[in-house]
Amino acid sequence: MTTLEIKNLDVSFGEKKILDNLSFNLDSGQIAALLGPSGCGKTTLLRSIAGLIQPDAGTIRFGKQLVSLSSLSLPAHKRKIGYVPQEGALFPHLNIAQNIAFGIDRSAFTKEQIKQVVKEMLTLIDLVGFDKRMPNELSGGQQTRVALARALAVKPAMILLDEPFSALDAQLRAELRTDVIKLLRTQKTTAILVTHDREEALVSSDVVALMRDGKIMQQGSPEQVYSSPTSATTAMSTGDTLVLSAKRLVNGQTNYLFNPINLDANILEIGEVVIRPEEIKISKDLSSAKIIGEITKIDYYGHDAMVEIAVSNESVQVRIPGPAKYATGEKVALEHLGPIRFFANSKS
Amino acid sequence: MQLTKIPSTTGSLNSSINRGNTYKAIVLSLVFVVIALTLIPIFYLLMRAFQKPVAEIWALLFRPKTLEVVLTTSLLVVAVVALTALVGILIATGLHFVKLPFRATFLILLVIPLAIPSYVFTYTWIALLPSFSGFLAAVFILFLTTLPYVILASLAGLRRVDGSQIEVARSFGFNNAQIFFKVVLPQIRGHISGGVLLVGLYTMSDFGAVSLLNVDTLTVTIQNMYRASYDRNAAAVISLLLVFLSALFVITDERFKSKNLLNKTTKTTGTKVYTISSKPYQITLISVFAVNTLVAVAVPVYVLLTRFINNPVAIDWRSIATASISTVVVAFFGAVIALVLSIPVGVLLSEKPTRYSRITNRVILIGHALPGVVVGLALVAFGSKLGFIYQTTFLLAFAYALLFLAKSVASMSGSLAKVPEGAKEVAATLGMNKWAVLKNVVTPIAAPGIALGTTLVFLTAMKELPATLMLRPTGFETLATQIWSSAAISRFNEAAPYALVLLIIAAVPTFILSRPDRVDKALTTQEIRG
Known about the structure:
Chain A has 8 helices and 20 strands. Chain A is an alpha+beta fold.
């Protein structure tokens, strides 16, 4: 069932168009990641869904309910969605229990029931015993967990997370992310996570939406967007990418760095081939090699290494499993394992 | 698309779309009312002044006597501002960076002069040294009276300077003086300018001290013209001249203020405190504090106590009690009116800047530049038109509210601006409309700062003299008027008990305000906003 349906959404701040005729759907229970560089409009989209921004045109539906139509929009407090902004935004004047209970309707629940929900939430976020603490006594990760619990406590139809882990260090970030995603999955909550971290988007979500310049460029499962990008740009949004100029020939073959066939056959179109660094194999055995290059740089990461190799006039990046047994200056044989993703240059 | 085409499921969409606009409209119309009230004095002064022929106005403005008074006033302002800024910044910097025993006590001793009105300062010094008079004496008294403003404002700014920046500067081999000028001073400039604004406006509007010391400033001239009541229209002309000079000062100060301090998101948490423990610095500072305490606290208190004890006339306790109650009640109502008036303005100014908020800010700043004499004179004119409020304590409380509205607005908007935007938004997504957010999130977070700002208004209103003299109902006496009526005719013994009571009452809010974190809430916010 579709929980969220956005059609032709436009948002402008003054002259500047932030969201440009954007459409997006999300099924119930799914976790979506909005991935894109800063300034691409992903936070604006999230805030439009939350009702914190009034769009200029387009529609937003929650299930069957229309919440935004052209410049008419249902205010945030009537939308029943959970919102976790950057750095949590806990209420500084309330303790943890009061923060979590903040959104619960006091007229619909008894004090005991509210207490019970708070208790459940504290267990869920693994902060039992912290109920009387104040937000400033908590670490960044704990604050984020409380912010999440506060949003979940009202059992929202959907939860929106705006780069909730951005303020944390790498290890804590990965841990907390795993916890939060697990939590959202057990609660079967529909969620949208805004992030500019490629790995975070791929590892956390069922659906990745790649955003750029106020538009969604591609939307699909993490595997789809990573291995079947729709353009060189979308490929670059999801991971390290090698873009090589290429020519497609009439006979169906592609001429590019790793397939330097002669160009006797007629050229059909000119464009680019997009390769992931792990799709290239290198070896020390130069005897039967078609392509040979010289290693110019090795970035060693422990579990793997990124090797930069000069081939003809190009510089090629290759990811190899660590520990690296190569040295800079060494000559190596290169082979592209495929697939060949060819994108024709947009013609005028 | 037409509204009628919306499916029935959007009934709630239909009914709630206009809420945001209603809120805006209510806030803006309330702001309009406040602005209209603020402009009443200027409106009445203009009306009065232009009852005179333009040629006469011109003659009045350019006669030698007027020019002389303007010159005296300007010189006084420049001298007091320069002196307080220099000494105040040095004291605050020392207090912030040098490790000292009894730091909190020193701070209280430096701030307690806030509880002593300038006219009490003056009369205690005259009682001690009968020849104490003239321009330099006025500079000295106003320096003592206004020094706490600069110290508090600078301290508030210094609290925001990150100690690690100083460590970095030190690692580059900078000495203390270089660090002060290159790292510290540029960052506290905005706060200093806020303190200087208070000092300048205070000096310009002071009436009690200059009058007792026989220095002819604009306020004295206006009061004399009013008292002689030979030509109230002429008094209005000179009042407008004073308003013009004050406004000029406000504008100059605005220019000086560094722009980046207007940034709301300045972080105050997590800054490291840097301290120096050096004997020479400590000894110098403690000596300065000792001298200041001697001249600004010990002398007035000593004189008041000896005059009180040696007073041969029987003390009229009943009259003291009545005056005390009147003082507290009227000042309290003034502070409450200012608080109420500042709510819509504060709400508007704490939100995203718009054309309206910029205009409002200007008007409130102009209000800030209205001296007590001027507001007094204008409200006398206004009140005599509206007979039913003339000669009422309400009009006096209203005068206090107008006089100190800028203080109240500053702490209101500053406190409101400190409420994190994210917290408001989260509350909205958790089902709260704008009013509920205001009640459950904004108010509890902002209340402490607003309460401290109101305390400051209350304190200032208790000490107010010129407007009180003009607007009090016949027979209504406050501590200030009682002190004045005795001190003005050199009956220092009779004034002493009233002055002591005023000092004791005023010391309570001053104590409350003399903790740096509280000062930060009550004062700095207004330094940022002017």
